[in-house]
């Protein structure tokens, strides 16, 4: 069953626990680029790194998190973020235990800092 937009927005705002500034600073670090799957475009950027840039755009566009201010494109990406974070948090306890693990770094690319949770 597909989650309704309201649920996606609520879960996104719970799971993404990094501010746009924190996420932007993280994405500039070398370790943020060394986890995850590379995109198919030969850019060298990972899918999670690209996702982080989209998350920053979403957060910057709607700093008050007004549910009525998100566009369909935003909600589509938010849906991916929620699915990714929930799946990885359920599968990998290592992210909380080791902030330098590939899992923790990957989650941070998707806007979730396991050390804050």
Give a verbal description of the structure.
The chain has helices at 5-15, 20-28, 47-61, 72-91, 94-97, 102-109. By secondary structure, the chain is mostly helical. It is globular.
Total helical segments? 6
Q: How would you spell out the order of helices and strands?
A: HHHHHH
Round the Cα radius of gyration to an integer and report it. 14 Å
Q: Report the count of strand segments.
A: 0
First-residue to last-residue Cα separation: 27 Å
Contiguous runs where pLDDT drops below 50 for at least 5 residues: none
Into which percent range does the helicity of residues fall?
55-70%
Major sheet size, sense and barrel closure: none
Residues in β-strands, percent: under 5%
Average of pLDDT: 87
Question: How would you classify the helix and strand content by structural class?
Answer: mainly alpha
What overall geometry do the principal axes of the alpha carbons give?
globular
Give the arrangement of secondary structure elements.
Elements: H1 5-15, H2 20-28, H3 47-61, H4 72-91, H5 94-97, H6 102-109
Helix pairs in contact: 1-4, 2-3, 3-4, 3-6
Report a brief summary of the structure.
The protein is mostly helical. The protein contains six helices and no strands. α2 runs antiparallel to α3.
Features of the shown structure:
mainly alpha, 117 residues, globular
């Amino acid at each position: 069953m597909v989650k309704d937009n309201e649920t996606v927005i609520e879960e996104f705002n719970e799971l993404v626990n990094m501010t746009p500034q924190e996420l932007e600073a993280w994405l500039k670090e070398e370790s943020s680029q060394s986890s995850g799957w590379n995109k198919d475009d030969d850019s060298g950027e990972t899918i999670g790194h690209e996702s982080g840039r989209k998350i920053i755009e979403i957060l910057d566009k709607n700093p008050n998190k007004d549910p009525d201010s998100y566009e369909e494109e935003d909600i589509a990406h938010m849906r991916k973020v929620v699915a990714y974070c929930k799946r990885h948090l359920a599968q990998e306890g290592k992210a909380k235990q080791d902030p330098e693990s590939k899992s923790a770094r990957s989650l941070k690319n998707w806007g979730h800092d396991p050390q804050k949770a």
